[in-house]
């Protein structure tokens, strides 16, 4: 979910909270129909009833932005679809004057409870992502970096994947703060991270490691591939334009891969060392840890 903005995450949490309320109201109406034998809504009898309710419409509107990012939300939508399918079955039996078997009701209730669990799990995913975001740049904080890298390292140890990481450090960043003020420096940081995100793949991640240092993590990526990606990033960063002053923002990169013979911390140190080699060689360049 790294490409979602903080505003999108906050909106997602609010929408999920509203979805809980709306489905509680929908459930109360379902009970009213079953107990009082009044006619159900025609939309609840349709095969696509799960797309007619408020949550289903929200899913349709946001499927390209939210759902491509979250497997949890995909699971929620499948649970939501099954709840509406189960409700349609109950409504059809009532409409035909038939009794609802206990097993049918139990299956429906089980599905409804699963959907509520999926809603809370999705909400937790959004909230945790937001909590671990740097408020200025919207990169992830370093809090979960080591844990995330250790999970990936375990896959490397089992021969399941290659995994690259890069250390990015802004060149002469202090000069920007000294010449144009810290507000300008903040703008440069935030804008550049958004520039980086726009060039990363959906499953890549960027963490704010400290100050103007960032770590970019790239699953299923070789050292050479990561080097090519960072070269494109380096160029994109240098081509940015800012409204204040005649400045060119550049960055230096050190690139390495997680190796079986190294710990995660040692790999980070290798990326850091390669980045300082880029600084020593003149800045605004990419150095590979070979």
Automatic annotation (TrEMBL):
Q: Name one GO cellular component term.
A: plasma membrane
EC class: transferase
Which one GO biological process term can you cite for this protein? cell adhesion involved in single-species biofilm formation
Q: Where is the GGDEF domain?
A: 161-290
Q: Which residues cross the membrane?
A: none
Reaction it catalyzes:
2 GTP = 3',3'-c-di-GMP + 2 diphosphate
Cofactor names from the entry are: Mg(2+)
Task: Please name the GO terms that the record assigns under molecular function.
Answer: diguanylate cyclase activity
Task: Give the EC number.
Answer: 2.7.7.65
> Pfam families recorded for this chain?
CZB, GGDEF
Stored InterPro entries: Chemoreceptor_zinc-bind_dom, Diguanylate_Cyclase, GGDEF_dom, Nucleotide_cyclase, Rev_trsase/Diguanyl_cyclase
NCBIfam families from the xrefs?
Answer: GGDEF (TIGR00254), PRK09894.1 (NF007380)
Quote the protein name from its UniProt record: diguanylate cyclase
